[in-house]
Amino acid sequence: MEKLEHIGIAVKNLNEANALFARLLGREHYKIEEVASEGVRTSFFEVGGVKIELLEATRPDSPIAKFIEKKGEGIHHLAFEVKNIAERLNEFRDKGFDLINQQAKDGADNKRIAFLHPKSTQGVLVEVCEEKN
Ligand code: ZN
Fold first, then answer.
1. Given 3-state DSSP classes, what are the helix, strand and coil percentages for the chain, each rounded to the nearest 5?
2. What separation in Å is there between the alpha carbon of 107 and the centre of ligand 1?
């Protein structure tokens, strides 16, 4: 892993959450992006080189909608930046981690992403991501 890239937070209402985090962090979000394939609308804040990604469901079967139904709003995942994501996924598999995504897929913020299953990572949903180029 190269660094903690962002922290994903599941929210019910993105506009309200944007206003709250702007008040908390003392700065505005710098972009909003919808990822239709994932059923989410995201917004991003940046603090000291780490991003906060707020995630709002855009449809009832979105993973974020299901998460909020089960656990309520709050921290959803930690995302770590990697190089050579395909190789890293093979490594994680070899090390015994369960992959939710066997291969990287397109995510928000110009990234290729994949998730490790929280049952193999101490209950924490872990995303690995690599900048697309
Ligand atoms: Zn993320």
1. 30, 40, 30
2. 8
- The β-bridge partners of 4 are 80
Give the Å distances, CA to CA, from 132 to 86, 88, 129. 13, 15, 9
CA 19–ligand 1 middle distance (angstroms)? 20
Q: How far apart are CA 21 and CA 26, in angstroms?
A: 8
Record the tokens describing residue 49, joined without a space.
Answer: 């080189």
Q: Which residues are within 8 A (CB) of 18 and not within 5 positions of it... i.e. 6 or more apart?
A: 28, 29, 43, 54
pLDDT in tens, 70-81: 999 999 999 999
For the segment 90-103, what is each residue's pLDDT rounded down to a tens digit? Answer: 999 999 999 999 99
Neighbours of ion ligand 1 (CB under 5 A): 8, 53, 79, 127
The pLDDT value recorded for residue 133 is: 82
**Bridge partners (DSSP) listed for residue 111:** 107, 131
Kindly state the DSSP code that residue 97 receives in the 8-state scheme: P
Mean pLDDT over residues 39-50, rounded? 96
